[in-house]
């Protein structure tokens, strides 16, 4: 099932993804176009599309084993965050969403630990996959990160970990579940609860207070691919319970080539920097040294 050993004309993703059901290698065909239309419609309607069993049953055991093997390498970081990933506002009441902070403890395995034999890296680097995602999110093209840590990442939630209610700063996020936890670890979201026209703080406060009338719950399964617009849809992953960890793969792409995350962020998320971050930091420092002269 190695990508380099496929027959001529056959996609390197054959056997790793269900290309019959999801013909991302034939985007220009009628079936390919129909798939893109379906995904765009879902995203337009509620900011989320799930392609279930994107990785077919035959490849699932291998997929699960990949993140299981990598998970001990996760670096855990703990923060308290509000839905806006921002500062509190003391001029507002304590129950205002800006003043509602919750624990976010999460583990991340950095991309430089994920070798090129893995299904997940072959998917991340696949030009068919990138073209498909670009078409769905209606971008001309998307690019892998030049950041060796943050482009392809495994998110590990062990018991007690969660993503509390929040918005994303990225336009879109592409994830694949490879293992679900016994309890909790459920993805929930309030589609389009805010918009460029308004924050709807009262609606957000209701959700934080436990009113889930506007909240959808998705029962993600290993092998499912999710594309999500998290900028306007408040969302969370409920606290994991039980011994089995929840694993998801994050496929991060940028609009422009050459994207590298900030060194401080690498340090916080992965507990370390890559040589390129050290270099950037050193260059930044020497520049400011020069400015001080
Ligand atoms: O793992 C998930 O299902 C979503 C995680 C999430 O919301 C995030 O990383 O911002
Ligand atoms: Fe998120």
Task: Please provide a written account of the structure.
The chain is an alpha+beta fold and 293 residues long. It folds into two domains: 11-259, Jelly Rolls, CATH 2.60.120; 261-293. Helix content is 28%, strand content 21%. It is built from seven helices and 13 strands. It has helices at 30-46, 57-70, 119-125, 127-136, 201-208, 263-270, 275-292, and strands spanning 48-51, 75-81, 102-109, 143-144, 152-157, 163-166, 173-179, 187-190, 216-218, 225-228, 234-237, 246-251, 253-254. A seven-stranded antiparallel β-sheet has the order 1-10-7-12-5-3-2. A four-stranded antiparallel β-sheet has the order 6-11-8-9, covered by helices on one side. It has a two-stranded antiparallel sheet with strand order 4-13. It is globular, with a radius of gyration of 20 Å. The N and C termini lie far apart (59 Å). The model is unreliable at 288-293 (pLDDT under 50). The protein binds 2-oxoglutaric acid (AKG) and fe (ii) ion.
């Amino acid at each position: 099932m190695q990508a380099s050993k496929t027959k001529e004309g056959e996609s390197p993703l054959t056997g790793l993804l269900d290309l019959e059901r999801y013909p991302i290698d034939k985007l220009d065909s009628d079936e390919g176009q129909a798939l893109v239309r379906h995904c765009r419609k879902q995203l337009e309607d509620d900011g989320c599309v799930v392609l279930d069993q994107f990785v077919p049953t035959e490849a699932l055991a291998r997929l699960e084993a990949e993140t299981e093997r990598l998970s001990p390498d996760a670096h855990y970081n703990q923060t308290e965050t509000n839905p806006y990933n921002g500062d509190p506002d003391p001029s507002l009441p304590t129950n205002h969403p800006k003043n509602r902070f919750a624990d976010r403890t999460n583990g991340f395995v950095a991309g430089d630990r994920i070798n090129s034999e893995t299904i997940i890296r072959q998917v991340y680097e696949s030009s068919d996959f990138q073209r498909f995602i670009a078409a769905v999110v209606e971008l001309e093209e998307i690019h892998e990160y030049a950041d060796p840590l943050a482009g392809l990442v495994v998110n590990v939630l062990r018991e007690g970990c969660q993503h509390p209610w929040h918005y994303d700063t990225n336009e879109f996020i592409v994830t694949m579940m490879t293992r679900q936890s016994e309890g909790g670890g459920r993805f929930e979201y309030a589609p389009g609860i805010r918009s460029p026209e308004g924050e709807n703080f009262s609606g957000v406060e209701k959700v934080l207070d436990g009113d889930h009338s506007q909240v959808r719950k998705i029962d993600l399964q290993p092998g499912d691919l999710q594309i999500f617009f998290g900028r306007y849809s408040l969302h969370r992953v409920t606290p994991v319970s039980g011994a089995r960890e929840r694993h998801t793969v994050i496929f991060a792409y940028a609009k422009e080539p050459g994207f590298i995350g900030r060194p401080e962020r690498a340090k916080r998320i992965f507990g370390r920097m890559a040589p390129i971050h050290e270099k950037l930091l050193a260059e930044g420092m020497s520049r400011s040294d020069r400015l001080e002269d």
